[in-house]
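Q: Could you write out the predicted structure for this multi-component system? I'm mainly interested in how the pieces pack against one another.
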Amino acid sequence: MRKVGSKERIRQFLLAHIGEIVTSIQIRDAVGTGVSEWARRVRELRDQEGWKIETHNDTTELKPGQYILREKPADNPHLHFKTSISAKLRAEVLDRNGFTCQMCGLTPGEIDPETNRKVRLHIGHIKDKSLGGLEELSNLRALCSTCNQGAKNITSEKPTAIWLLSQIRRAGQDEQRAVFDWLRKKFVR
Ligand SMILES: [Zn+2]
């Protein structure tokens, strides 16, 4: 039998109690994991998926340990990539994009200066599914979590060589050397 993850159980539990105040004890009983685990999942639903889950920090109506999901969350098409894109296609997209976020240029393992978290890459649609974009190599690209959520203020146009060089000239020697090392690794065998 397929194991249902704790996040999915929390999702189902909250969906079954929209508009009701639920307590941490109810969540714990429904989900059956430790508090740090489900509290993290609740935060992920709020922060990454935009679920309107309120706590006592948001409203005086609630006491500590009480939560409420106000309304049925909108279906966010960006969140269903993992289930619908095959591992093979995902690997092809990542490989073609050089394991680099196609908007901001960060790579996995680097620290995203916006979030101070390690970069993770997702597969994003170039033309959105809701606009008829297809789930095929030509319409997919690697994006970091922040860019995938549209949270980075970067144009999707690629930087030009002139602009890149101007930025490298402005940087300090250590930064320039890091760029040189990276280019050498990429282009020199
Ligand atoms: Zn990015």
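A: Regarding packing and overall arrangement: The CA atoms of residues 51 and 73 lie 6 Å apart.
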